[in-house]
Amino acid sequence: MAGSTLGIIFQLTTWGESHGAALGVVVDGCPAGLHLEKNDIQTYLNRRKPGQTKISTPRKEADEVQILSGIFEGKTTGTPISMLVPNTSQRSTDYSEIASYYRPGHADYTFDTKYGFRDYRGGGRSSGRETIGRVAAGAIAAKALAEFGIRLCAYTKSIGPIGISMDHFDQTAILETPTAMPDREASLLAEQYLADCMKQYDSAGGVIECVIDGVPAGLGDPVFEKLDADLAKAVMSIGAVKAVEIGDGVDVSLHNGSTNNDPFRIQDGKIIKTSNHAGGILGGISDGSRIILRAHIKPTPSIFTPQETVNKQGEELEISIKGRHDPVIVPRAVVVVESMAAITLLDALLRNASAKMENLKKLYQI
Amino acid sequence: MAGSTLGIIFQLTTWGESHGAALGVVVDGCPAGLHLEKNDIQTYLNRRKPGQTKISTPRKEADEVQILSGIFEGKTTGTPISMLVPNTSQRSTDYSEIASYYRPGHADYTFDTKYGFRDYRGGGRSSGRETIGRVAAGAIAAKALAEFGIRLCAYTKSIGPIGISMDHFDQTAILETPTAMPDREASLLAEQYLADCMKQYDSAGGVIECVIDGVPAGLGDPVFEKLDADLAKAVMSIGAVKAVEIGDGVDVSLHNGSTNNDPFRIQDGKIIKTSNHAGGILGGISDGSRIILRAHIKPTPSIFTPQETVNKQGEELEISIKGRHDPVIVPRAVVVVESMAAITLLDALLRNASAKMENLKKLYQI
Amino acid sequence: MAGSTLGIIFQLTTWGESHGAALGVVVDGCPAGLHLEKNDIQTYLNRRKPGQTKISTPRKEADEVQILSGIFEGKTTGTPISMLVPNTSQRSTDYSEIASYYRPGHADYTFDTKYGFRDYRGGGRSSGRETIGRVAAGAIAAKALAEFGIRLCAYTKSIGPIGISMDHFDQTAILETPTAMPDREASLLAEQYLADCMKQYDSAGGVIECVIDGVPAGLGDPVFEKLDADLAKAVMSIGAVKAVEIGDGVDVSLHNGSTNNDPFRIQDGKIIKTSNHAGGILGGISDGSRIILRAHIKPTPSIFTPQETVNKQGEELEISIKGRHDPVIVPRAVVVVESMAAITLLDALLRNASAKMENLKKLYQI
Amino acid sequence: MAGSTLGIIFQLTTWGESHGAALGVVVDGCPAGLHLEKNDIQTYLNRRKPGQTKISTPRKEADEVQILSGIFEGKTTGTPISMLVPNTSQRSTDYSEIASYYRPGHADYTFDTKYGFRDYRGGGRSSGRETIGRVAAGAIAAKALAEFGIRLCAYTKSIGPIGISMDHFDQTAILETPTAMPDREASLLAEQYLADCMKQYDSAGGVIECVIDGVPAGLGDPVFEKLDADLAKAVMSIGAVKAVEIGDGVDVSLHNGSTNNDPFRIQDGKIIKTSNHAGGILGGISDGSRIILRAHIKPTPSIFTPQETVNKQGEELEISIKGRHDPVIVPRAVVVVESMAAITLLDALLRNASAKMENLKKLYQI
């Protein structure tokens, strides 16, 4: 089944395998007239690039984007934007062994069952490199959203047991710490924790939070295309995400209505909420306050510790995974979460253009 | 924007408002030849019917389904199944006051912003009664899945601070306790807790868990249509859900790879996993073990306690919500979560039919 | 497979069988704030109602529409509009015989092959009564388009060999002649031709033309969602249509570039075309001139003349179809073609709202 | 709006402009396990390549395809197949003049109106080179269909007034004549006709017919996704097509039921039809006989004859189009029509896999 396409109006289609010739994305439905250049995309891609810190895989990839269509004279034309990143660090020999068995925590077994066989090199289509296309598309979405005053900010909230403190929140640290934490102290502790994990040939999980400011009230649709439902799908579709929360998330089940409801008030002549347990979404539609979401990321499944598994022939065996792997997925996934949120928000903003006759009459000058 | 339709092959479209003439659903893409009768639907609908216990709204609704198309000689014909439930307990006078102001925690403000006005009677389209269509469709999906040996079971896992004990798990209790808990002791404690909430004019939240057994490996698609992504969307699209977890969910961020990976082994000649932290899904595709998901439900926003809000004219005011409201949404939402899971699973099963040439050749007898 | 839903933003889902309880449609994505009342729909439905003239089936159907959702205080709310027409003239006994064999020119054989069995009463889902949902949705689309100055006009262009003369074009005649021809003289000739056909227990085909004025330039999308491609699908999806033409249609293959190109000129400060061979669409996008399309309709397949066929058991037999049938489908299909064109146009108009940043900035007041 | 994606299960997304870096397509949803190599695609692409005959543009393009993903060990993996053709013959200077004015019969004016500006080089996205992606995808679809015994054959039926004779039908001639006619005599006449057109600085139109054999009964869905409706959209979405016919097409309006109905009979124990006016489709579903469709193609709009038009500034002017243009689009469009038919058929075949419980039980071995 097709399933590599997301979005209704702003629509992306990703393609490519870890060890194929290239990976890429086609972004269709981007409104015409957005100023866009290669560097807008590259800046985002650089945030997920491997080989940049000691807590990321030593595998180096240039991950340099090529824009092949959809831009003319520095602006989007309204037609599909095709982008491609060549694979340059393909050491397929690393993966010859894993062709035969099923790595625990990976999609090897499920792909073989579904399709009859699989491209086993580096995980093939189920590799984290598939997110290159998402991030390239996310960069465009974020650029478009900025024109409407909408700003996204994602960061690592915790790695294993080490969480950030909101009192130390420093946005500049997100791009400067190897953990993508906005808290330099917590980041040092997390680095220490990861060093310990690596010593034990193990890996760690963590939490990514994404906040979105400047979202006008009214985005999202009331039933199945609720803004929070679309965000949940977009974020859960990132490999390794096992839970998605909106606003107070899992804590709401312990609250009471009196503490969980957000009162409306008037400020500077505008309707605002004096708290934001809802995370900026009511009834599936943005309410004008900050949107807040969190993704819970499982520990990297590729660990050097010996593990029990089976092979294609149905024999039990013990394996030790080799190769170049991140001890934690979280820091490099931060920009992926931000990208998926941007993609979802922009689609909702475009869909909302035709929500009422009043809007349309303004456009068609009736 | 259209947004009342869900699914790619098994596709449902819901319609209707809390106080309109009726609510309903059109289910398209159900395979022909499934035995189906009215009672299959009604049994499911009865599980979400109000007025059945003292912890549910005293508002009585017959909620009797009519099947208008798509069934012939007791079997589905492959054409759309239209189902309708008339609204019989419409006391619109209850809602005259709320037309003017915005209830905290509700979609009143966001609907007005998006559409310019709203059907304010009983929440209109944003009412929990919208889920009638989902449950009617879910009943069909569950019936179809049963033919493939797939069985769903959803239940209340906690209400406020009161959780069930897996040691006391008793499936028959789900349909017999007013809380839909599979633990009769916990249920009594939860009822007491809810009685206390009601005394304080307040409401409670809780957690619903859904487990799905008998799912063959191979359902779900690797990128955006991951089975967990589609489940997350389907469940998050239920009003009041603020978080969705798969398998170990939010706990994975505290785990290490060595404890979170599920080893593969051979049992009775078949590949199985010796643990199930993943909740039955690897790389977005079912792995043959039990699928586990949880939904976190916020407390009912309609509470009798006075609350601060604003009205359409931009004036601040204090309100006390009247009417007939559930002190907790969880027990009646259990069947809604089960329905959304069933709908998602069946669509994945149908989509998977064309995943490989081998399947198709079997069908077209090549 | 689901396939009863059409449109991306303005989206309709039809349901119902000829001899089921009712037929209907859910219209989702209609912009909020459109004034709409039952009579807007009924007027359109009355144009396809049977039993009104001697060249239409004598079967009487009230075909009275019920609106069940999506309208509040006389305006669309932006949520799904569910509409239903009860079946009142069901004489299932008429159809007991046809359960066993396959009528030539009908979908009996193909339904049985596809689904394993079929609702044989009156053609079931493949009956012309399925178009009731299309016409109800088309009435809404036409009403919305009128607010933007877009006006549709469909009529019978020919029945068998009898064609209208553009010199006699009289729009009022469309609703007044039994043939839906805008030429009273031609209509009389066509009635005579049909009377002759009926005497010979035979049926006739014909051509429907639809012209659309006031369409702004810019509707339609350049590749697969070309306005003419969407119109072709919408119109070809009406049972009995075997060809669709845009503008000069089949004649273009005989033209040369010099005679087929439409020159641009300036009139009253606006860009216009001095001819319209293209039928108002260039490169899949409306060019501001009149849109012209034609549908070629096959003769009613239900004829009283004896025909050769086979039955489900694989036996050859000769049949004589009984029952109440139109000698020509064309006059009652005129409003169906107009409806499908309206539905397609409105969807294109809504989709176009997000085509360029300039539009969106106007809307979001940047 | 997004609109560069077609299909529900077998889904293609095309991208690229005439004078951009490359053009391409992503094919998603191709079943896993289909043997596929570069040459399967290249053979198809060569059929639409320019510069091969004197009746095609002298512009040379290598049009050599690169496959970037989705194939492993010579077989499709079930994941997206990304294909790309670099543009090598870009003489943008040819097009500097047309940036300022609107060529009659082209999409220049409509693109400018819709998007605010356009990539004017060689028609940009509205160029016939956009069909490269369609043909690459069509080659895959045709290869897959062949595995089910389904064979497509498209050819030129007429160019201007010169039509083929079915008595002279010679399938080998399709690939050997410059006109793609299956009648060598007619082809010579058509070449002469085109030479005359070129002498007069003019161009010609024509008709393409596509026949499909071996289609099992049961493909297509009864309402909006009728096989003929999907074929009509797919074919009408090719630039320059102005009419689509199925079976007897425009002639049906002159027939009577008694001559237009196709009788069913038994042959070799199987149900067949003794005539095929319907062109292999009844009620939107394939009936097991040959599928027949025709596309009517307008004359190339780029002609050297002086034409009246306007420019962006709203000034009237006379232009003479220069550059390298085909005097007739038809021969190179033959493989495009065949490709669009193949894409549509394969999607219908995949969709049909889940039409009945019986099919699914066979697959899931219940």
**Arrangement of strands in the largest sheet of chain A:** 1-2-3-7-4
Q: Give the overall silhouette of chain A.
A: globular
Give the helix proportion of chain A (percent range): 25-40%
Please tally the helical runs of chain A, counting DSSP H or I stretches of 4 or more residues: 9
Structural class by secondary-structure content of chain A:
alpha+beta
For the sheet with most strands of chain A, the description reads: 5 strands, antiparallel
Question: Biggest protein-protein interface?
Answer: C-D, 112 and 112 residues
Distance between the termini of chain A: 43 Å
Radius of gyration of chain A, in Å, reads: 21 Å
The counted number of beta strands of chain A is 18
Order of SSEs of chain A, N→C?
Answer: EEEHEEEEHHEEHHEHEHEEEEEEEHH
Quaternary organisation: homotetramer
Mean pLDDT of chain A: 94
What percentage of amino acids of chain A are in beta strands? Answer: 15-25%
Uncertain ranges of chain A: none
What does this protein look like?
- The structure is a homotetramer of 366-residue chains.
- Helix content of chain A is 27%, strand content 22%.
- The first copy, chain A, starts with a strand and ends with a helix.
- The longest helix of chain A has 22 residues, at 330-351.
- Chain A has helices spanning 38-48, 108-115, 131-146, 171-176, 184-199, 227-236, 257-260, 330-351, 357-363, and strands at residues 5-6, 11-16, 22-28, 66-67, 71-72, 75-76, 81-86, 151-159, 162-163, 206-213, 241-246, 264-267, 270-273, 281-282, 285-286, 291-297, 307-310, 316-319.
- Chain A is of the alpha+beta class and 366 residues long.
- Chains in contact: A-B, A-C, A-D, B-C, B-D, C-D.
- Chains C and D meet through strand 1, helix 2, helix 6, strand 11 and helix 7 of C and strand 1, helix 2, helix 6, strand 11 and helix 7 of D.
